[in-house]
Structures are given as C-alpha cells and as structure tokens.
Amino acid sequence: TLNGLIYDSGEMLLEKTLFEKQDIENKPIYDLLPDDEKQSFRQILNSIIEKGNTYEGPFNLKNKSEEILNFFCFIYPENNPEGNLESLNCILYDYTEESKTREKINKLEQTISELRNEIDAARDRFNKRIETTREEMRELYSEIETSNIFYQTTMSLHPDAVITIDANNQILSINQSVLEVWEAEEDIYTENDISSLLPELEEKQKGNYLGDLYNMNLEEKILGDREDVYI
C-alpha cells in the first residue's frame, strides 16, 4: 500500500522468505528490510508516490531465519479506474545464489591477488639472495666436490672391502677390495639389493650373521651404532 503495508504476496515470495501469508500481510514492508536499508527504501517509495517514478535496482529482504536474500527489483505505481494512485507493485528477481557465488569469486580473486603479490615479493627477495650467495655456492660446490674426490679416493684405496647402501637396501657403491674379495672382474653389485649378498645359511658359525640382523626397513637404526657381525 502507499503507506508501506503488504496487502498481497505471491507464492514464490513466500517460498523464498519461508513466511506464511498471514505472517506478512498487513505488516510493514520495512519489517522485512535490513536495518541499514530501511531509510533509503522509504525515500524510493516517496519518490514513486510523489512523482510517479518507477524503480529498478537491488532490493534485499530478510527471510524468516533473518538471512539476507538478494533480489533485483522493479517497482511501479498502479492507479485505480479514476486514475488515482492506489498501490505499488513490486516484481522481484532472486539472485541470492548468484550473489553468494560472486562473493566467493571476489574472495578467491582477492586471495589470488594477495598470493601474486607475495610471490612477486618472494621472487624479488629470492633474486637478491641468489646474487648475494652465488659466490658462496661456488665455494660450497668446490668444497663438496673436493670432499667427494677425497672420499672416493680413500674408499678405493682402503684395504678393507667397503659397501655403501641407502635406506632402500640398494648398494650405492663398492670399492676395489670388494671385487678382490668376491673375485669379480667387474662391478655387478652396485644398484642391486643388498639381500643378493646375504644368503640363507643352514649351518652358522659362532657370532652374529649379518643376514639375520639386517632389517633396515623395519627397525629404526641408531646413528653411529656399531655391531660386529660376520658375512
């Protein structure tokens, strides 16, 4: 009505707002509006009543659970047969879900923008760090290479047979003494499983046989722990 009372409502509006007809008919439309939009909507109605204008634009309502629903609204005046303004018709298009989706997209876009800024800042820091540490890396590489050469040379000249394995039981390297002990002409052990060197023994000598103790995958090994075994 001209004083803002609801005198009729469509079924779809009732479905959207979860109200029954008796809940809202003859009640002020302002009861369904968010508090911060009541004054602006009052001005819209006054403009329609006084000047015969129409209104197209956003229009929000609260449902029975006090949740905000987003509509696009078209409000126009309706005259009686005598040509006098009698009531206001309000046609609503619900775009609440679209609004929620847009809000999520906006948040995602904001997050992406923030991440890009962080990545750019991190890239700048990283580039500066590269410049300041390039020489350090050269020195470190030289030191590591020297250590590797020293280790390989030491192992190759070691009188004992030395086998190096990784945590997956794979033989990483052997020295020359291994080939001499096994009377092998070439290295057929590297990159093979250590179990290939640990046969099942029917008769065992006194002491611990490595094949019985070797259980790296199942037991946690103590760094630096040593045990005498025979193989």
Description:
It is a single chain. This protein is an alpha+beta fold and 231 residues long. Helices cover 42% and strands 16% of the residues. It has six helices and five strands. The strands form two sheets. It has a three-stranded antiparallel sheet. Strands 4-5 form a two-stranded antiparallel sheet.
Please write out the topology:
Blueprint: H1 11-17, H2 21-24, H3 38-51, E1 55-62, E2 68-79, E3 85-94, H4 96-157, E4 163-165, E5 171-174, H5 176-181, H6 210-213
Antiparallel strand pairs: 1-2, 2-3, 4-5
Write out key terms for the chains shown.
single chain, 231 residues, three-stranded antiparallel sheet, two-stranded antiparallel sheet
Secondary-structure content class: alpha+beta
Shape: elongated
Number of strands: 5
Biggest sheet descriptor: 3 strands, antiparallel
**Count of helical segments?**
6
Unreliable segments (pLDDT under 50, ≥5 consecutive)? Answer: none
> Mean pLDDT, rounded to whole units?
83
Numbering strands along the chain, what is their spatial order in the largest sheet? 1-2-3
Summarize the structure.
With 231 residues, the protein is an alpha+beta fold. The protein is built from 6 helices and 5 strands. The strands form 2 sheets. A 3-stranded antiparallel sheet has the order 1-2-3.
